[in-house]
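Throughout our pipeline, every protein is held as a single compact record rather than as scattered files. The record that follows is passed on verbatim for readers who wish to inspect the format.
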Amino acid sequence: MKICYTIFLLFAGTIVYSQARQIPIDTAIITKHTTTVKGQNFPYTAKTGTQPVWDEEGKPIATLFYTYYTRDVKTPGTRPLIFSFNGGPGSASVWMHIAYTGPRILKIDEEGYPIQPYGFKSNPNSILDVADIVFINPVNTGYSRLVPNEKGEMPNNKLFFGINADTKYLAEWMNTFVSRNNRWESPKYIIGESYGGTRVMGLSLELQNSQWMYLNGV
């Protein structure tokens, strides 16, 4: 199932441009890489894609884009797993991803300005050497979107936009992610920046009360 968007630009009553955009609701792409952290070189796997949020009838009502990094080890299920959020609340996880904890970061100086030639580099201070990381984009950030029903109607915004709604659907999504990726045995942590800090506090309670997921730290 895919969401299809068609954009029409009108000028003097004439259609001058048309573009169809499709966002897959449930998909994953896996690639292999190597990095060096604190002088130690090791291989890791990057998994990125979208995972749905379902309603009570089992129909997708949203899809969240994520990036999941795992160090290639013999017993991956026992490594710590960290869920990472940025703030906003309308912000994707991009800055926690490419400025702080991910295996690659942007080329910037000490004051945060880009360095030419523009691009990215390996992050010598990534936390991937000691823990696996999931960067999550909440609904309407990054590539994460609401999913219309068969009639083209969008879900009720109250299911997603609000402090309690935000933690409820994200906790359910995290439960699905942990189950799909066989990570229930892993110690679990959450990182939140700015509003992500507020989200972390709410998620800690929601995960414990509704999802039987007890965190090892925040």
Observations:
- The helical segments are 94-101, 163-180, 195-210.
- The longest strand covers residues 40-54.
- The domain at 25-210 is CATH 3.40.50.1820 (Rossmann fold).
